[in-house]
Backbone:
């Protein structure tokens, strides 16, 4: 509901004639034997007489939250509400749900069902019926032998047949429909048991992904007991060393980058699936250096007061200066001013020796 009744507008050359024809008195000033409208002149008019593209700010009340809101008049007139109610941005979800319910009631009153995607009409019956493919125009039975499943269509099948989609009719792999017994098992045990344990309880063979998909359809969530139990079995201490459970192969492997790739989204910055399960190899034979805690302590204690060359010669003869520098950067370490001066002196000696060698070659 529009709360603003009258507004003050600035007159322009494009709006003066409109307001004058609407019955408003326009104040004019005589300049050189002519009556003109002075720049910046304002008048008070009714909101109903505003131009549709006016930028004047008006106030209205949202019919859902009943709070006053401010909006430009051009945006207010541009809103195309189907239920003649004013809706703010915060209540847009309520407006859409109300509109969808009204549209669904209208569809139920019809004698046919209308698909929201392809706009095709189907009779309101559960009997076996056929429809034409959009590409080849063949009339084929509506089942999984001829059409792929598509939840966006009302009948649950695509409007393009399998052959037009580059597939074959009568596919060999068919998913059996969910029985009520399996659905009851998921509802009863999903909150507390692991998905792999539920697999063996079902009457038909299902993948973990299929069980998770069905649980999401049923709006089921894991409870706190499941999360605590998973944390207990996720890690295990073997020979005074921490091991982690791989979700795919279900083997306990040491918690380091040799077996698990980096993943900052996980709590320990390591992915929950090992390298072998994602198609890679362990880093035993790789050039990647795995830093131990003792080596990290050496970097922490000596990085600021020693150059990279000195650290390499004393502590890490097998590593390069670049690896030492990258490790120091990852630990947010910085060189002191004296160390930087010595590094610049070393760099100057190296460049001078190179210049001498070039002159000797000439």
Residues:
């Amino acid at each position: 509901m529009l709360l603003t009744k009258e507004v003050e507008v600035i007159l322009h050359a494009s709006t003066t004639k409109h307001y004058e024809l609407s019955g408003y008195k326009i104040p004019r000033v005589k300049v050189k034997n002519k009556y003109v409208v002075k720049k910046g002149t304002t008048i008070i008019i009714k909101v109903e007489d505003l131009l549709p593209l006016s930028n004047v700010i008006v106030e209205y009340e949202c019919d859902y939250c009943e709070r006053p809101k401010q909006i430009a008049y051009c945006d207010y007139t541009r809103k195309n509400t189907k239920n003649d109610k004013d809706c703010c941005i915060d209540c847009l979800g309520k407006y859409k749900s109300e509109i969808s319910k009204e549209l669904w009631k209208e569809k139920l009153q019809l004698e046919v069902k209308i698909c929201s995607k392809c706009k095709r009409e189907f009779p309101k019956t559960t009997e076996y019926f056929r429809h034409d493919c959009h590409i080849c125009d063949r009339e084929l039975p509506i089942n999984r032998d001829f059409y792929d499943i598509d939840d966006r269509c009302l009948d649950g099948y695509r409007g393009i047949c399998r052959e037009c989609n580059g597939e074959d009719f009568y596919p060999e792999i068919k998913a059996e429909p969910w029985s009520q017994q399996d659905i009851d098992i998921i509802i009863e045990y999903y909150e507390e048991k692991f998905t792999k344990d539920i697999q063996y309880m079902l009457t038909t063979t299902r993948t973990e992904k299929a069980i998770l998909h069905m649980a999401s359809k049923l709006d089921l969530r894991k409870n706190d007991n499941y999360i605590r139990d998973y944390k207990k079995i996720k890690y295990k201490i073997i020979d005074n060393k921490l091991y982690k459970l791989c979700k795919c192969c279900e083997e306990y492997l040491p918690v380091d980058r040799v077996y698990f790739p980096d993943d900052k989204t996980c709590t320990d910055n390591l992915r929950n699936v090992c390298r072998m399960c994602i198609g890679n190899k362990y880093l035993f034979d790789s050039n990647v250096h795995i830093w131990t805690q003792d080596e990290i302590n050496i970097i922490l204690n000596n990085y600021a007061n020693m150059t990279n060359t000195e650290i390499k010669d004393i502590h890490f003869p097998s590593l390069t200066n670049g690896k030492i520098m990258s490790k120091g950067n990852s630990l947010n370490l910085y060189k002191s001013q004296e160390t930087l001066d010595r590094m610049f002196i070393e760099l100057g000696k190296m460049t001078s020796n190179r210049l001498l060698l070039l002159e000797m070659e000439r």
